[in-house]
Write the structure tokens for this entry.
Amino acid sequence: MQDPPALKELFEDDFIIGVALNLNQISGNEPEAMALMEKHCNSISPEDVLKWGEVHPEPDEYHFEPADCFVALGEKHKMFVVGHALVWHQQTPDWVFLDASGRPVDRAELLERMRGHIASVAGRYKGRIHGWDVVNEAVDDDGRMRKSKWLEIVGEDYAQKAFEFAHAADPDAALYYNDYSLCAPVKRDGVIRLIRDLQSRGVRVDGIGIQGHWSLDYPERLDDLEQSILAFSELGLDVMITELDVSVLPFPDPQRGADVSLHFEKKKEWDPYPEVLPDAVQEKLARRYSEFFRIFHKHRDKISRVTLWGVHDGQSWLNRWPIRGRTDYPLLFDRAYRAKPAFGAVVKTACATNE
Ligand code: XIL
């Protein structure tokens, strides 16, 4: 069989191709995955190691070793290194919001903690991490600011502060807002309001990451994806497809998106392909990837990066979320590191001419 072409070369004139790496891969325990990353990608994101809880688990304790390895890996391969994520309501330890006696801290203290965290983390990798997800998932499905501890304690300007602190920590890093369900018009409008508000206050935001936690039937209308790409680009921002994975499994809740706190008990019917993915579904997945990449390619003047949330099916978080212990097939390489039909479908879109 012919050696598959490298995605980063196929899309060279269009956008960069990124992938998220987990701790095991960063630690050097999965050379097969690293070979795929090296061949196909020119950008990496850390799946978990730069989240607050991982890198700053206790008030005076930073755990930089895995992140140091991650950044060194990106440098070794001359990649565009993404940092993820500075301010988020998930995977952030409780202590961040509490004082020594267990009571909520006040605005000034929380802002100081936020500043200190961003200065330490983004500051440590100044000039080496090229773009940061500064604020992750601040908008709720109803388009309003999410009722998180950040909002509750600091107030509506917490996002502004996060971007300002990040800019101060590394003036040359690109600064992004990243979120899921951004094809949904109500949430899209909420994010546009947030960005416009930041822009009107003179806050620098460089890009929006559209998390691509999608499936065979979600988002329902591809037109919604196109509308979001256009609308975000009209704000003068770089648009990125971050966290791309396409689930083939049924989703147990009418509320879609990617709320990491969702959890459901496993039932047999929710895990229809525990051994192997039937050819017909494999083909559906390939068609779906093809549809998505046709849109990315069509809007390549607006999209700067497409990042897959994992190298291969075996490592995907979708095997654990929102139900533990399922077998999903959401990526371009299978559990044996072989290119799937979806990979071939993506390759074809790189050569397609625009309609
Ligand atoms: C996920 C990781 O993939 C998992 O390893 C972890 O257990 C939970 O978080 N939105 C985000 C990502 O911004 O950080 C999340 O990543 C998926 C949803």
User: Anything to note?
Assistant: The chain has a mean pLDDT of 97. Residues 47-48, 136, 211, 243, 258, 260, 317 surround XIL (CB under 6 Å).
